[in-house]
Design a protein that fits this description.
heterodimer, A: alpha+beta, 7-stranded mixed β-sheet, globular, B: 163 residues, alpha+beta, 5 strands
Chain lengths: 780, 163
């Protein structure tokens, strides 16, 4: 691997604060919910109280007659165009007019002068329903005769990933020494962005619609709004303000966006819609619950030979991106550990519940909980050390998997070694009641952005230098808290030779910034970072050409540091950026006429490895892969079933960290979401109604739940990443549930196949399986 | 709803404003006075995004009526910095990565100020316990605890918080 120390950098690699940190810590950062426009109305949505019903009639006359109500809309006010992130499975209308399919489905909306009036107006709308039988369990939903949600589908199966075979799977299984087969279940997890989903819509007299939206991809949102409202893209502007979290939630097009737009158009006044916390739990996307069956064939020496993974995804009432998520989950069975024979299958099923969407890891936390739980079962079954078994089978640098995935850059074995070495494995400190154990969970994930539906994955950046030498970057990739604005500023400053604080980043306004695919699949640093580096390079070329004229030399004889350009061989011959842009005398200004700013662009198109074949699935779904290993040390109270995590250690292959502090922050924050996923996060339904729709009943990790964390960054140079960096925003949360579940097994000898590991579930499993006796060594 | 005149000191300035008698302190600060740094996360006292100090005590402003703060001193995040000079907690949160999306940050910093006002030299465990009512979905809290410790050290060196 190229040595990082061979190429030390001044700005890239430094622990600099976020470019907007002073706004964040003073309360000055303006979020959607802080957007106050003149004469702005408040929008509210009438939602279905039934899990499944036909709409017979909607009577809005009483609401319309109420003073203070400025617009009322129903399905009749929409063009009736169904949409979804994956348009080939589009099933959702902004407002349903024929049928509702979950408790919370949108039927009508109002805009009124204040919230109270809007809520009274919503209550005054009369809807007649014809109730239909509903189905909530995906396995039940697939049975013939189950209530059906969509006319387009049979047995509620909205999509299938038909059996993809690599190698000779059946023959390989028949030749293995041991075959293990297990089924794991994972819950619906809520994103719980601290700012609930909000939008402000404004429609002006030029016929242009402006949305201030919580969005991870403003240009895609513009595209979908254009389609749903049947309005030209040129008439739509999307502005992302500061955002109170994303985590994939804002990679979905929620109906509030078209609804607020239609209300603003009808009322002729700006409209804000803010979901309440309860509404967010009841109606926003979740992580898809999955039922995952894995069959693995191994030889007695520990080599994995054959694997088969079958994923059943519960997408809820509609399809946002469940098929892509299912594919992402299923692919991990071959990208992760070496196996020469692999079969992948998936089924996406609709049920009468709130629907799923993208969530940090995109199916991978589900898949990794299953794969890594089974890795421990296999190691124990064949009498091999758990860490050594992983190390033996880990995919390695330069390898191409049987499914065609190229391990462009891979420090996976080092991650396993270093996470294991930094952890305590001896169970010391256990008592009769409190049992200690240690478990590992590893992961592989895209390290540079997922490729979009077999089309070119691209990013572009616009860069401008002003008359005073200050740099402005224009990028369509939103900073959602992950710190991408700062990464771009570091990359540009490093490439140009100016200081970090000279760079201003303007993000995610579709009128100002070049088109991009947005924040998804950990693509910001790798894809947009490369585009930004190229833009900065192109700007630097122009700067040097002008400086060469003024210094009467050749551009390649020049270098720049701290915004001073100098002749490399004669460091005394210099010119500052300010002097370059604003010549100090009329003579110089006449001799070197110059615009007040210099503009350049940079593109990056991912052509790094073979694209995945849409038919066979062979090839690469992303340009590079990131790897890691986490180790959890836990203490299980066998009387209460409570699991306490004592320490989390992670070692991560991140390429070069552009900002190590920010990378650690992603890993630590990811692990906190992973810990919640492992232990308590679970959206619960009764007869289709979410019964824990608040932060008292749906628990997320507090400071008291989080253990000390040791985060080890294994930094080497990815050959295609900007300055060698990989994208790692999702990574931290992927392996935590598996690491904790494996540690619980290590502590008490009880294997639980479904998460979260709530005290009730742990106690039940203890009752069924019995606690492993306390060894003498552990009690010491 | 009947209206009443709310009188209180907010960030050192006397405020007098008419508002519905049932308005929460959160809505009063945000909607009537424009202190939009005070955030709404759950409206039921579970997340801490709306934390402010009332007579030095940290409260969830979503659970308190503005009327209950009559005649009292309210401090929100906006009251911590002086001009462009940041409070040591704000500086540490910025420099140590204690804020990512920043939405929980105002409440978190105000809650941390209440911690340090009472205990200038807390252990990590004491900080975690005192901030247990403030949820951050981004950071995993490691860098928040680091930032509070850093600010505590700076405040001790300065001989206390006179902000």
């Amino acid at each position: 691997m190229p040595d990082l120390n061979a190429t030390p950098l001044e700005i890239v690699g430094q622990r600099v604060p976020q470019v907007n940190s002073r706004l964040l810590v003073t309360g000055e950062a303006r979020y959607i919910s802080d957007t106050f426009l003149p004469r702005m109305l408040v929008g509210k949505i009438l939602r279905s109280p039934h899990a499944h019903a036909r709409i017979l009639s909607v009577d809005t006359s009483a609401a319309e007659a109420m003073p203070g109500v400025k617009a009322v809309i129903t399905g009749k006010d929409t063009p009736g165009i169904k949409y979804g992130f994956q348009q080939n499975y589009a099933r959702k209308l902004p407002l349903e007019s024929e049928k509702v399919r979950y408790i919370g489905d949108e039927i009508a909306a109002v805009a009124a002068v204040d919230e109270e009036t809007a809520m009274r107006a919503i209550a005054a709308i009369k809807v007649e329903y014809d109730l239909l039988p509903a189905v909530f369990d995906p396995l039940e939903a697939m049975k013939p005769g189950a209530p059906e949600l969509h006319d387009e589908d049979t047995n509620n199966v909205i999509a299938r990933i038909t059996s993809k075979n690599f190698g000779d799977v059946d023959k390989a299984f028949s030749e293995c020494d041991h075959v293990f087969e297990d089924t794991y279940k994972t819950p619906a997890q809520a994103h719980v962005c601290m700012e609930t989903r909000s939008v402000v819509a404004q429609y002006d007299k030029k016929g242009r619609l402006t949305l201030y939206a919580s969005t991870q991809f403003p240009h895609v949102l513009r595209d979908i709004i254009s389609r749903v409202l049947d309005m030209p893209e040129s008439k739509i502007r999307i502005i992302k303000t500061f955002m109170g979290g994303g985590f994939g939630a804002r990679q979905s097009i929620d109906p509030i966006n078209p609804i607020a737009s239609l209300l603003a158009i009808k009322a002729g006044r700006p409209v804000i819609i803010r979901k309440t916390r309860e509404e967010e739990f009841e109606t926003d996307r979740t992580r898809h619950p999955m039922v995952i069956t894995i069959k693995t064939g191994v030889m007695s020496d520990g080599r994995i030979i054959a694997r088969h993974m079958n994923v059943i995804t519960d997408t809820g009432a509609y399809h946002d991106q469940a098929t892509a998520v299912t594919g992402s989950a299923a692919n991990k069975i071959s990208n992760f550990y070496h196996a020469d024979h692999v079969r992948i299958e998936g089924t996406v099923v609709t049920t009468n519940k709130v629907f799923g969407g993208a969530f940090r890891g995109y199916g991978n936390p589900q898949a990794t909980f299953a794969i890594e739980s089974q890795m421990d079962r296999i190691a124990e079954g064949i009498g091999m050390d758990r860490v050594a078994f992983r190390h033996l089978n880990a995919n390695r640098q330069g390898e191409t998997t049987v499914a065609g995935a190229k391990m462009v850059h891979c420090e996976f074995p080092a991650c396993i070694e270093q996470a294991a070495a930094a952890s305590n494995w001896d169970k010391s400190g256990s008592t009769q009641t409190l049992r200690r154990g240690t478990g590992m969970g590893c992961f592989v994930h895209t390290g540079g952005g997922a490729r979009a539906a077999h089309a070119a994955s691209f990013s572009s950046t616009l860069i401008k230098m002003n008359g005073d030498g200050a740099i402005e970057i224009f990028t369509g990739t939103p900073d959602i808290g992950q710190g991408s604005d700062s990464v771009f500023a570091q990359i540009a400053a490093q490439e140009l030779g100016v200081s970090y604080d000279m760079v201003n980043v303007i993000t995610a306004d579709t009128d100002l910034t070049p088109s991009t695919l947005g924040v998804r699949g950990s693509r910001e640093t790798f894809m947009q970072g490369n585009a930004t580096k190229n833009a900065a390079h192109n700007l630097r070329v122009q700067i040097m050409e002008r400086a060469a004229k003024m210094l009467q030399t050749k551009p390649d004889a020049l270098d720049m540091k701290d915004a001073v350009i100098f002749v490399t061989d004669e460091p005394g011959r210099t010119i500052t950026l300010q002097a370059l842009m604003a010549p100090s005398s009329p003579e110089l200004a006449t001799a070197f006429p110059m615009p007040q700013s210099i503009v350049a662009t940079g593109e990056f198109v991912d052509t790094i490895s073979e694209m995945a074949d849409p038919k066979t699935g062979y090839g690469n779904t992303c340009p590079t892969w990131a790897f890691g290993a986490q180790v959890a040390e836990v203490e299980v109270d066998i009387e209460t079933g409570h699991v306490e995590v004592l320490k989390l250690t992670g070692a991560y292959d991140v390429g070069r960290a552009i900002n190590p502090m920010a990378v650690e922050g992603q890993m630590e924050g990811g692990a906190a979401q992973g810990l919640g996923y492992a232990l308590f996060e679970d959206v619960l339904w009764k007869d289709g109604r979410v019964i824990n729709a608040n932060l008292a009943d749906y628990k997320v990790a507090t400071p008291m739940d989080m253990p000390p964390m040791e985060t080890i960054l294994i930094e080497t140079i990815d050959p295609y990443g900007p300055f060698g960096a990989k994208g790692v925003g999702e990574a931290g949360m992927i392996p935590t549930a598996a690491a904790i579940a494996n540690a619980v097994y290590d502590a008490i000898g009880v294997r639980i196949m479904d998460i979260p590991l709530t005290p009730e579930r742990v106690l039940r499993a203890i009752k069924e399986q019995g606690v492993r006796p306390l060894t003498k060594m552990a009690a010491e | 709803m009947a209206k009443m005149t709310m009188e209180m000191s907010v960030n050192g300035e006397l405020c007098e404003e008419e508002a519905p008698a049932n308005i929460t302190l959160l809505d009063f600060l945000r909607d009537k006075l424009g202190f939009s740094g005070v955030k709404m996360g759950c409206n039921m006292g579970e997340c801490g995004a709306c934390t402010v100090l009332v007579d030095g005590v940290s409260v969830n402003s979503c659970l308190m009526l503005a009327a209950e703060a009559q005649g009292k001193e309210v401090t929100s995040i906006e009251g911590l910095s002086k001009g462009t000079t940041l409070h040591p907690l704000q500086k540490a949160f910025a420099e140590f990565g204690g804020a990512q999306c920043g939405y929980c940050t105002p409440g978190m910093i105000v809650a941390a100020k209440a911690v340090l006002d009472e205990n200038p030299d807390p252990s990590d465990e004491e900080i975690r316990f005192a901030l247990a009512g403030n949820i951050c979905r981004c950071t995993g809290y490691v860098k928040i605890v680091e930032a509070v410790q850093e600010a505590a050290a700076e405040l001790r060196a300065k001989g206390g918080d006179h902000a």
